[in-house]
Write a structure and sequence with these properties.
The protein is α/β, with parallel strands linked by helices. It has twelve helices and 14 strands. Helix 1 links the parallel strand 1 and strand 2 (30-34).
Length: 318
């Protein structure tokens, strides 16, 4: 990666990835794009372009204008939001991906797009879910992710585009607010612990899902993109994870630092149904073997860092 364009750069992952990539590759070499701007560091502290990824000519023109050799395609509608508007989700998630892949093909760019544990479904093995297994999701978001994995594989096999991807679990971050994902409770619980000392979870007790702290997710993207292509057997949609937890386990860890924290439940049937269709835990051995993936943060090491960073953020004047 030498000249990188990021779509969806102001989203949950993109806003932090943009900053980290600029630190590594140079500010001028990382072009952030999104459908609208804001006052974030990603938008204000380096090259930024307004871009609608469903506009294929605009996407190609922007990439060509900046002479990029890498496209990191993050623009997408997340699980719960996609379920509320499935037609829009298909048009954005799949149309945007196709446009980005076509631009990568035309400009001979390396290409990354994330998949998700949402690509799995109720018939997938729920414990230690393998890298290669049954994928029959029951949500529009999951359908998009499976189709996206296959499409990225197609562009590699048919056109030789250097496509790569990760199946992310729920991502926990202090930098960007939740963006409409089913796993977002694991971010909200930390915000509410600091602001109110109480959280009402829309995901039920005992509902296990894989999670990862954002610093590990960013490192994984960079490591995969820098990996020797000769060693990649799977290329796209590598399983990655750091922890498998339910709401009560997160609450218990928070109480080690805030003993009075209270957790209650007000289960959202839609997001609960989505969560129950996903694995309880996944097997990341293919990523470990093929490019050396290893998460650094566990629940116990993430929690104090998350609380400290959030307290600093929430104490700052708007």
């Amino acid at each position: 990666m030498k000249k990188i364009m990021i779509t969806g750069a102001l989203g949950q992952i993109g806003s932090e990835l943009t900053v980290k990539l600029r630190e590594i590759y140079g500010t001028a070499n990382v072009i952030a794009t999104d459908i609208r701007s804001n006052d974030s560091e990603a938008a204000q502290a380096g090259p930024f372009e307004i871009l609608d990824v469903t506009n294929a000519p605009a996407l190609a023109t922007t990439a060509n204008k900046h002479g990029v050799d890498t496209i990191i395609h993050m623009a997408a509608l997340l699980s719960a939001t996609a379920e509320a508007n499935p037609v829009f989700a298909w048009n954005l998630n799949m149309g945007g991906l196709m446009n980005a892949l076509e631009t990568a093909r035309e400009l001979d760019c390396q290409f990354f797009t994330p998949s998700s544990i949402g690509a799995f479904g109720p018939s997938t093995p729920k414990v230690a879910t393998p890298q290669d297994t049954i994928q029959r999701p029951t949500t529009m978001y999951g359908v998009n992710k499976v189709a996206g994995e296959l499409l990225a594989d197609y562009y590699f096999n048919r056109f030789g585009v250097d496509t790569r991807g990760l199946r992310f679990p729920g991502l926990i971050s202090y930098a960007a607010p939740p963006g409409g994902g089913t796993t977002d409770y694991a971010v909200e619980i930390f915000y509410e612990a600091i602001k109110n000392g109480h959280y009402s979870s829309y995901i039920g007790r005992g509902t296990y899902m894989d999670m990862m702290y954002m610093p590990d997710a960013l490192t994984a993207i960079i490591q995969l993109m820098e990996a020797d292509p000769a060693k990649l057997k799977h290329r796209n949609s590598f399983n990655v994870t750091a922890m498998s937890v339910d709401p009560e386990e997160i609450a218990q860890e928070i109480r080690k630092h805030q003993p009075d924290f209270q957790l209650s439940y007000n289960v959202d049937p839609v997001r609960q149904r989505i969560a129950e269709s996903w694995p309880n835990s996944i097997d990341a051995s293919a990523a470990e073997e093929e490019w050396g993936f290893k998460a650094q943060y566990s629940l116990s090491s993430m929690t104090p860092d998350m609380l400290q960073k959030l307290k600093q953020k929430l104490a700052q004047p708007n």
